TrEMBL record:
<dbReference type="Pfam" id="PF00106">
    <property type="entry name" value="adh_short"/>
</dbReference>
<keyword id="KW-0560">Oxidoreductase</keyword>
<dbReference type="Pfam" id="PF13561">
    <property type="entry name" value="adh_short_C2"/>
</dbReference>
<dbReference type="GO" id="GO:0030497">
    <property type="term" value="P:fatty acid elongation"/>
</dbReference>
<dbReference type="GO" id="GO:0016616">
    <property type="term" value="F:oxidoreductase activity, acting on the CH-OH group of donors, NAD or NADP as acceptor"/>
</dbReference>
<dbReference type="InterPro" id="IPR002347">
    <property type="entry name" value="SDR_fam"/>
</dbReference>
<dbReference type="InterPro" id="IPR036291">
    <property type="entry name" value="NAD(P)-bd_dom_sf"/>
</dbReference>
<protein>
    <submittedName>
        <fullName>Malonyl-CoA reductase</fullName>
    </submittedName>
</protein>
<comment type="similarity">
    <text>Belongs to the short-chain dehydrogenases/reductases (SDR) family.</text>
</comment>
Amino acid sequence: MSGTGRLAGKIALITGGAGNIGSELTRRFLAEGATVIISGRNRAKLTALAERMQAEAGVPAKRIDLEVMDGSDPVAVRAGIEAIVARHGQIDILVNNAGSAGAQRRLAEIPLTEAELGPGAEETLHASIANLLGMGWHLMRIAAPHMPVGSAVINVSTIFSRAEYYGRIPYVTPKAALNALSQLAARELGARGIRVNTIFPGPIESDRIRTVFQRMDQLKGRPEGDTAHHFLNTMRLCRANDQGALERRFPSVGDVADAAVFLASAESAALSGETIEVTHGMELPACSETSLLARTDLRTIDASGRTTLICAGDQIEEVMALTGMLRTCGSEVIIGFRSAAALAQFEQAVNESRRLAGADFTPPIALPLDPRDPATIDAVFDWGAGENTGGIHAAVILPATSHEPAPCVIEVDDERVLNFLADEITGTIVIASRLARYWQSQRLTPGARARGPRVIFLSNGADQNGNVYGRIQSAAIGQLIRVWRHEAELDYQRASAAGDHVLPPVWANQIVRFANRSLEGLEFACAWTAQLLHSQRHINEITLNIPANISATTGARSASVGWAESLIGLHLGKVALITGGSAGIGGQIGRLLALSGARVMLAARDRHKLEQMQAMIQSELAEVGYTDVEDRVHIAPGCDVSSEAQLADLVERTLSAFGTVDYLINNAGIAGVEEMVIDMPVEGWRHTLFANLISNYSLMRKLAPLMKKQGSGYILNVSSYFGGEKDAAIPYPNRADYAVSKAGQRAMAEVFARFLGPEIQINAIAPGPVEGDRLRGTGERPGLFARRARLILENKRLNELHAALIAAARTDERSMHELVELLLPNDVAALEQNPAAPTALRELARRFRSEGDPAASSSSALLNRSIAAKLLARLHNGGYVLPADIFANLPNPPDPFFTRAQIDREARKVRDGIMGMLYLQRMPTEFDVAMATVYYLADRNVSGETFHPSGGLRYERTPTGGELFGLPSPERLAELVGSTVYLIGEHLTEHLNLLARAYLERYGARQVVMIVETETGAETMRRLLHDHVEAGRLMTIVAGDQIEAAIDQAITRYGRPGPVVCTPFRPLPTVPLVGRKDSDWSTVLSEAEFAELCEHQLTHHFRVARKIALSDGASLALVTPETTATSTTEQFALANFIKTTLHAFTATIGVESERTAQRILINQVDLTRRARAEEPRDPHERQQELERFIEAVLLVTAPLPPEADTRYAGRIHRGRAITV
């Protein structure tokens, strides 16, 4: 052979040069004038080939060289290349032809260790990957610096890298990876002027291919020649045989050599990244992929009773997202991590999730799963089988690492390549192999039905550098899946035919996220993973690509999780007005209603929070596919529901934006004053009632005409469990204003339902404590439990000081002014050691010192400014005259008055107390309540009811409303002799007349003081009781709107009261509560009239109670409005509204009274029944009812002897509501 030809002057390195194809390549390259270096591991074979070429073709020794090296070892390759370059100066052509056959075994039987080798499996999986992928990669990397411009790299792959090649995963999977590597190398080396191309030989005519096919037939259980016949039938081209007849036959090694010479020569100078298939035109698809173009529908996916194994590398975020999605569908999840570090990081993330999610969070199981130690994989399977999960039903396999080793494949070091080969290629196949082995070992009970196991290989997201290594792994996984599916199907057919009850065949896909790195992309991929693993859906294409722009492709930016899918369309076309919509329950209701298809107006005071909520909801709407999201969510910032003008503006803005309102969600409200009744300012009480209750009526009054006219509407009041239940009130100490307002919201729904129907539904929801920002606290604002804890500590100190002063005043001759002056040094030790101080005060000081926290100034100081102000107000309110500035020079104790530890300890008690009353042992979240509410709104058959999404909360004390039974004992009635009775009221003239006479004439009261609103009322009572007026036993005081001053006047003139009976000054309104459809609403109870109703029927009793509760020896009966057989339906409804709402106050102050020095009895007497049919119908029944009224008042106001006022008895005699 001469040194002329198409390759004359070129230096060519052909790996595996002594093999079947390699030797032909060597001969042809020599014939075309190239100097050829053949490499391999076997020196003898290389030497024999070189000598044969010299002898047969007359090639001079200088044109054929050999280099013995192990191409799978980069160190050996580097030494070999350096030796070649030292001898020849450069390398012009690199032909990566060397490799190995790989084990001819099914996936489950691939040898992983030397001990597993045997016939048909002469090398381990690790060796196969190193030989078939590692060799070519090492040679390209290491030879590239020595290749001049115009050089060529030819990688010899195989057409079987994209064929269903049974039992040959160790061979075809690395070859598929080599195909992707060639494309990436072509781009990288192209910048240096080096072209890279690939040859795909088909089955080459030889004894070797016949042996391979024969072995494959044996593995598949098919007749000999079946595999060869199958592949011959895929060939388009027939060629003439030696006799000239056309036939389908396998290509020859010469055909491969022809292609290689072309790619090595200048004739292919314009080609790079190309492939030449030397296959006689075998019809095998170049790829099997599609894009996921639609959102998943998870509503029908039920993975209950199924377990999914997540085989992870270090992808914590992906694992958390997958776990959440799979659990949403009902699947149990087991997670295996390839490294101890990733496992520890995940456990830390889980602990954080547990802290945020609460006690009901169940952490997933996480175990080590290292493909380099296959026993750890088997241990995970054993664990799953031992935990009654039914074993592993599906698997998700993630890459070994979440990051790419490098942005390039040529300029990369040996360690990164070797780790990639071991972890991402070999490791992935090992996991698949163990899964295949596990599922093949499972057997079904005869007659049982089962789904086939499912597997998803989930790639990493886009890395912004082309995901070069991810693409190599994806190519390998694609071929792994193709052959695994093929093997699984054939094996299942064969086993079923033999009567073996094996699992149905495995079905696998890979989801590729290279085009998308967003959170939406991850959620989209997780949703598709859940659907493909746990539904009957099969996608034949192997590779499923996540689109770069999910929103543009699918019409939604992400897959909706199960709960959102079930909401979409539930309230489509509706318009909702939601107050308090910037956060908390209101914000979540707005969010979920919007997701359900409603258009929403969110109203609140804080513009910034509203805008944040609006943006979040609009973003979610866009994600799930709604259009014109900006028009679906409007906000009304600066809306204070305690302002009537702003409520009117809110309705106008909503109607201007949407034209109508279908749902009114009265959610806005305030926490209230958070004080005991005796310390609560009247204006604070009024503000709470207006914000939480009167605003509800105002909006209802404004929108009900529209709802009636349009024929439908829904009003929902967001009340609270502490607003009570039907026939039972819930005491809520330190929160009476809040409890009353919430009870009123509930009562409003109960009594207005009959008037608003049939067009309008009105209901209430009453959650208990809700886990969320408002409970936990945000920023500088402490949460509910912390606020309650501080209030409890301050009130305990206040109550103890107040009680000690009252106890001292009862026995000490000094005035209250003089007693209070003993506190002015504000020194616990000084008070304890002051011999002039009353025993009660000295003993209290001793307890403060001995039981206090030394780190808190409360152990050395008696009061802080807040407690001093409350104490002064309480004493003033109780009728003690003190200088307003008596505490002006009080030494101010240093902070903290109560330590953080004290507050936290008390807060834990509050929380533990609440948790102990929850049947479910967990508080619902704001989202939970909102979700329940949105479904509740969809029920068109409920009105006048209250729904309690409270976690099963049951309070320890629920004073009920009940019928009158019995009279006080003679001992209690005897205590009335000589007493002073206060009767407060004006409207219930007949009741007050009879009651005054009963006290004076039957039970020996010394005097009755009648406190009325007007002089006319006073004249009326004096006329009715003129005999007692003349006897000097009945006195009247006109209060006007100064009820507190009137009580002080009564105390000053006539002494402190015993029984006090508080009745309304004014009657109930007699106007309609609603108008008819399309009728005039001008005569309907107005917003102002409803506010007056609350003032005269609720606030009136509050003002009296906060005074009387501080009066020694008093007992108080709060009387609600009367209705009779002649009362209107509206009056009957309003009376029930008042009695239900007021009972929340009565129950609360009843409990608070137990904690004060006076411990007065406080109860309620109701003059209205729930059913009108029970009202008296004739004068005789009327007289009976009046007598029952007197008995009821006596029952609750007759003094309880101190020795009888035990904890048990006290609870019976306080907070009750007695119906006459």
